[in-house]
Design brief:
The protein has 430 residues and is mostly helical. The protein is built from 18 helices and two strands. The protein has a two-stranded antiparallel ribbon.
C-alpha cells in the first residue's frame, strides 16, 4: 500500500468520524431545543434551524416532495384558523412551520442511523444522571448543595424559565407547594438533563422502544439502565407507559411462556403500585380533582384532558391553534392564568389542530415506526402499540409541539430505510 493510499484512507476515516460526531451534535440539538431548559426558546430554535440548513445544503441530499405536502397541510389548517377567528398572528404560523422544517432537516441529515445515535445519547445521559442522582440520594441531598452553586453560572444566559436550576447536563428539582401549603422539593426525582422528571421519562421510554425493536429483545444491557433511570423519575405517566410497553412486547410474541410472564408482571406491577403512597396519592388526587367543578379544579392531566375535549368540540375540524384569546375565557389575573393552564399534550394537540391535523401527525408517526419495525425484522403490528404508548406519554407532557417529536413522523423518509424496503419488495417479486 503506497503513501498516497494511506493518506487518502486517513482523510476518509477522519471525515467519517467528523460526520458521526456532527450527527450526534445535531440530534442532541434537536432533543435539547425541545426539552433541555438552557436551550428552550425561539432564539435557539432559529439558530439551530439555520445550522441544520447549512449542513443540509452541504450534503447531496434530495428534498422529498412529501415535506412540501406535509407543510401545506398544516399551513392550510393554520390559515383556516386565521380566517375562522379573523386573526392573523405571523409568529404563531411561522413558528410552527419553522419547527416542522427544523425537524425535517435534522432527520434527513442524520439518516437511518437515527435510532443508534438516539439510543447512545439517552444511554449516556441515563448513566450520567444515575451517577449524580444515587450519591445525592444517599447523602440526603448534600451533593445538590455543591452543584446548585455551579448552576448559578448558567442562569444569566438562560433565555426561558430562568428560575429553573441546572448544570446544563443535569436539571435539579424545583420547589412546589404541597397539599397542606408546605414547600415540597422534588430533589429526589431524577430529571436527567431535561425540564422535569416526567420529561426525562418520556425520552427514556422512547429509548427502550427503539432498543427493543432494534435488538428484538426487551432485556438488554441498555434497556436495564433505561429502566432503572425510569424508576428514579418517579413519573406516573412513565411508569404506566413502561407497564404497557412490557405487556405489548409479550403480546406481540404470544407464546404460553410469555403469557405466564405477562400475568406475573401484571400482578407484580399492581402490587408495587398499590404499595407506593406517592404514586397512589398522585393518581387519586388527579382523578378526583377531575370529578369536581372543572372551572376551578387543579389543572392536572385529567382535568386538562376534559377541558381540552370541551374546547375541541367548539372547532373539531381545524382546531383553535394557539390563539388563547379565543380558547380561554379568563386572561387577566394571575389566578385566571392558572385556571387557563393546560398540561395534557395529547388532548392539547387535538384542540390546537383539530381531528385533521391530529390524524396527519400520528399517521406518519405510525408509518415511521411501522417501517422501522419492518427494517429490523420486528413484527409490524407492534407499531400500533408504539403509538398508543406515545399517546400515554403525551397525556402527561406537552411534547407534541416540540421539534423532536414532530421529527418522529419523518423517520420513514430516511434513504437507508427506503432502500431496505425497496430491496425487500424486489426480493418478493423475484
Amino acid at each position: 500500500m503506497n503513501t498516497q493510499t494511506i493518506g487518502f484512507n486517513k482523510i476518509k476515516c477522519t471525515n467519517t468520524r467528523f460526520r458521526i460526531f456532527l450527527n450526534y451534535v445535531m440530534l442532541f440539538m434537536l432533543a435539547a431545543q425541545s426539552s433541555v431548559p438552557f436551550f428552550i426558546g425561539d432564539e435557539y430554535l432559529i439558530a439551530f434551524f439555520f445550522l441544520s440548513l447549512i449542513v443540509y445544503l452541504s450534503k447531496p441530499i434530495i428534498i422529498d416532495k412529501f415535506i412540501f405536502n406535509y407543510i401545506a397541510i398544516f399551513f392550510i389548517i393554520l390559515i383556516a384558523q386565521a380566517i375562522f377567528f379573523w386573526v392573523f398572528e405571523f409568529n404563531t404560523i411561522s413558528g410552527y412551520l419553522l419547527r416542522i422544517g427544523y425537524a425535517y432537516l435534522t432527520i434527513k441529515v442524520i439518516g437511518n442511523k437515527f435510532d443508534d445515535y438516539y439510543i447512545n445519547i439517552i444511554y449516556f445521559f441515563a448513566i450520567l444522571s444515575l451517577v449524580i442522582y444515587i450519591p445525592n440520594l444517599i447523602s440526603n441531598g448534600a451533593l445538590n448543595d455543591i452543584l446548585l452553586k455551579i448552576s448559578k453560572l448558567f442562569q444569566p444566559y438562560q433565555l426561558h424559565d430562568p428560575g429553573r436550576q441546572h448544570i446544563l447536563i443535569y436539571t435539579f428539582g424545583q420547589n412546589y407547594l404541597d397539599n397542606d401549603g408546605s414547600v415540597f422539593n422534588i430533589t429526589f426525582r431524577n430529571s436527567g438533563p431535561f425540564w422535569e422528571p416526567g420529561g426525562f421519562g418520556v425520552f427514556l421510554i422512547l429509548a427502550i422502544i427503539f432498543e427493543t425493536i432494534k435488538s428484538q429483545k426487551i432485556i438488554t444491557k441498555k434497556n436495564i439502565i433505561f429502566s432503572i433511570a425510569t424508576l428514579t423519575t418517579l413519573s406516573t405517566g412513565s411508569f404506566i407507559a413502561f407497564f404497557f410497553l412490557v405487556i405489548f412486547y409479550f403480546l406481540t410474541y404470544h407464546t404460553p411462556k410469555r403469557i405466564f410472564i405477562i400475568i406475573l408482571f401484571f400482578i407484580g406491577s399492581t402490587f408495587i403500585f398499590l404499595n407506593s403512597p406517592f404514586l397512589v396519592d398522585k393518581f387519586n388526587n388527579q382523578f378526583y380533582a377531575s370529578q369536581k367543578s372543572l372551572a376551578y379544579a387543579p389543572r392536572n392531566r385529567f382535568v386538562s384532558g376534559k377541558l381540552d375535549l370541551i374546547d375541541f368540540l367548539n372547532n373539531p375540524i381545524f382546531g383553535t391553534s394557539r390563539y388563547e384569546q379565543f380558547r380561554f375565557k379568563y386572561k387577566e389575573s394571575k389566578f385566571e392564568t392558572i385556571v387557563n393552564h393546560r398540561n395534557n399534550g395529547t388532548t392539547n394537540l387535538l384542540v390546537e389542530f383539530g381531528i385533521f391535523g391530529f390524524f396527519t401527525f400520528f399517521y406518519f408517526m405510525f408509518k415511521s415506526f411501522k417501517i422501522f419495525c419492518s427494517v429490523n425484522k420486528f413484527k409490524k403490528s407492534f407499531s400500533i402499540y408504539v403509538i398508543f404508548i406515545i399517546l400515554i406519554l403525551g397525556f402527561s407532557q406537552m411534547i407534541f409541539i416540540k421539534p423532536f417529536f414532530i421529527g418522529l413522523s419523518f423517520l420513514f423518509l430516511s434513504n437507508g430505510y427506503k432502500s431496505k424496503i425497496m430491496e425487500k419488495s424486489i426480493r418478493k417479486n423475484s
